[in-house]
Specification:
Residues 1-30 and 32-41 have low confidence and may be disordered. The protein has a 6-stranded mixed beta sheet, with helices on both faces. Strand 8 and strand 9 (196-198) form a beta hairpin. The protein has helices spanning 9-15, 118-133, 155-159, 163-187, 230-234, 246-252, and strands at residues 2-3, 21-24, 40-44, 58-64, 70-76, 83-90, 136-142, 189-191, 196-198, 201-204. The radius of gyration is 20 Å and the shape is globular. The chain has 6 helices and 10 strands. With 254 residues, the protein is an alpha/beta fold. The longest helix has 25 residues, at 163-187.
């Protein structure tokens, strides 16, 4: 799972406006460290002649409550031939809070604030892929607010004993697994001595609650989700040269 988390949402939305995607290693590695190479790995321009007008998100699977309200759903292409090898989730982006507490009570422990605009970012990313590449990704949507369900926790903390919420939790993870199966059926899998899995990419979109956007010191901040410690950032060594130095080190040294 690749987390596109902890990036300022406004910055990410502006990145979606670009017409190509480049994957690069860090550009600030000390020249004496040979393991750090400042090479562009690959560039993917938009598909020439791509006509996205006939492509759209179809609701492939859904978990609906007794009143017909969709709590969790899997969005994707109507035909697997139109699928991108991409799965997108936004587990903390839901806004549904309409329930009387006797039906779905508030969670009494654990984090309960939603990650602001993360569902909107997930959908914007999906729309951008359709528009620029004529491929439809899979998006798993949790409509329930985090105060009702946290699908990014084990079921005991996530649902806190409420049956309908437990079923929504199971639906979210089952739909995610189903999307991965769909990607594998169209794009295949890989199996080597070092790596085994589906030929696809998963974006798990996270953020901050709205109350955390502006620190006391002034302007909004940007935090990159590479899990680099302060000691690593303060050191003179190149973090991408060490596979144990946060998520970027793990990715570049896999």
């Amino acid at each position: 799972k690749v987390e596109m988390g902890f990036i300022n949402q406004h910055l990410l939305l502006s990145l979606l406006a670009f017409q190509s995607v480049e994957v690069a290693t860090a550009q600030s590695c000390p020249p004496e460290q040979q393991e750090c190479q400042n090479n562009i790995l690959s560039s993917y321009p938009p598909k020439i002649g791509c006509n996205s007008s006939a492509l759209f998100f179809d609701s492939l699977l859904s978990y609906v409550d007794g009143e017909g309200v969709v709590l969790v759903e899997l969005l994707g292409p109507a035909s697997v031939d139109d699928s991108a090898a991409i799965v997108i989730t936004a587990p903390h982006g839901g806004s549904e809070m309409r329930y009387d507490h006797s039906v779905i009570p508030q969670r009494t422990w654990g984090k309960t604030y939603k990650d602001s605009y993360t569902l909107e970012i997930a959908m914007a990313l999906g729309d951008s892929l359709i528009e620029n590449y004529c491929k439809v990704p899979y998006i798993i949507v949790n409509h329930l607010h985090r105060s009702k369900l946290d699908v990014n926790r084990e079921i005991v903390e996530a649902a806190q004993g409420v049956f309908i919420v437990e079923e929504a939790w199971r639906a979210f993870h089952n739909f995610t697994a189903h999307a991965q199966i769909k990607v594998e059926s169209r794009h295949g899998s890989v199996s080597t001595s070092d790596l085994e899995g589906v030929k696809g990419l998963m974006f798990d979109v996270h953020g901050y609650p709205a109350k955390d956007w502006t620190p006391v010191s002034g302007s909004p901040f940007i935090q990159l989700g590479y899990r680099l410690s302060q000691d690593t950032l303060d050191s003179n060594s190149c973090p991408v040269g060490n596979k144990y130095s946060g998520t970027i080190g793990s990715l570049l040294n896999a």
